[in-house]
Write a structure and sequence with these properties.
Belongs to the TRAFAC class TrmE-Era-EngA-EngB-Septin-like GTPase superfamily. AIG1/Toc34/Toc159-like paraseptin GTPase family. IAN subfamily. By secondary structure, this protein is an alpha/beta fold. It contains ten helices and six strands, in the order H-E-H-E-E-H-E-H-H-E-H-H-H-E-H-H. A hairpin with a 2-residue loop joins strand 2 and strand 3.
């Protein structure tokens, strides 16, 4: 009887799976830590290697049922240009691996940046994602995740809300924020405060559910024309 109950529970959790989230962003922005925060588990292991591109990195997948929703997070697309062509190869390689890892379709692309970063190259990184994954998905289903929320809170002496802070920023952050449709969530991946952890997850899920139009991003939507995408990306990177 206990074995039957266990199998029934696992089967029920499988059917509850609804949300697929794809993590992307510059190297060291906190993608893996954000994935762990979303799933309230230490599933993802950062694979940062500053000396070489992340071509050998593999996509990581985590799943958990939270708030009556099955959430799958795929972590893997690093965007840091050590050398234009080689870095594009890495981004394309990792994107393909991520898409292959999860066959049930992605609801949203989470573009992860650090609050302490400069955002100088993120607009181009974002455009590279549009070339690789397709402009429709990236433009309409992206959410900006700003990590190091603890630093934001400690430096926020005027007690400005995060939404107001985002709206008040100038370029280059403003350009990235607008590219994400004005959708952004502050994440503190270091907090031990249970209420704060739950608050940031619920804020993210609210945005994901709010922009749900029944469309997901599947493997069939991925642009396998690597040479064509590479040419477009090379042209993009040459622009100032």
């Amino acid at each position: 009887m206990e074995q039957f109950a266990l199998l029934f529970t696992l089967s029920k959790e499988k059917k509850e799976e609804k949300i697929g989230l794809l993590l992307a962003g510059p190297l060291g922005g906190g993608k893996s830590a954000t994935g762990n925060s979303i799933l309230l588990s230490n599933i993802f292991i950062p694979q940062t290697n500053q000396k070489s591109p992340t071509k050998k990195k593999h996509a990581q997948v985590g799943y958990k049922v939270l708030y009556n929703q099955g959430i799958t997070v795929v972590d893997g697309i690093d965007l840091t240009f050590f050398h234009e062509n080689e870095s594009f190869e890495c981004a394309f390689f990792l994107a393909e691996k991520c898409i292959e890892k999860y066959g049930n379709g992605f609801n949203a692309l989470l573009y992860v940046v650090s609050y302490t970063g400069t955002f100088l190259y993120d607009s181009k990184y974002f455009s590279v994602l549009e070339n690789i994954l397709g402009e429709d998905f990236v433009t309409n289903k992206s959410i900006l995740i700003v990590t190091y929320g603890d630093c934001f809170i400690s430096s926020n002496t005027e007690n400005i809300s995060f939404d107001n802070w985002c709206s008040a920023q100038e370029d280059p952050f403003k350009k990235l924020f607008l590219k994400c449709g004005g959708r952004a969530v502050l994440f503190d991946n270091n907090t031990q405060d249970k209420k704060r952890k739950e608050k940031q997850i619920k804020e993210l899920l609210h945005i994901v559910n709010d922009m749900n139009d029944g469309k997901k991003y599947y493997k069939k939507d991925f642009n396998l024309d690597k040479s064509g995408v590479c040419n477009n990306t090379t042209k993009l990177l040459s622009e100032k």
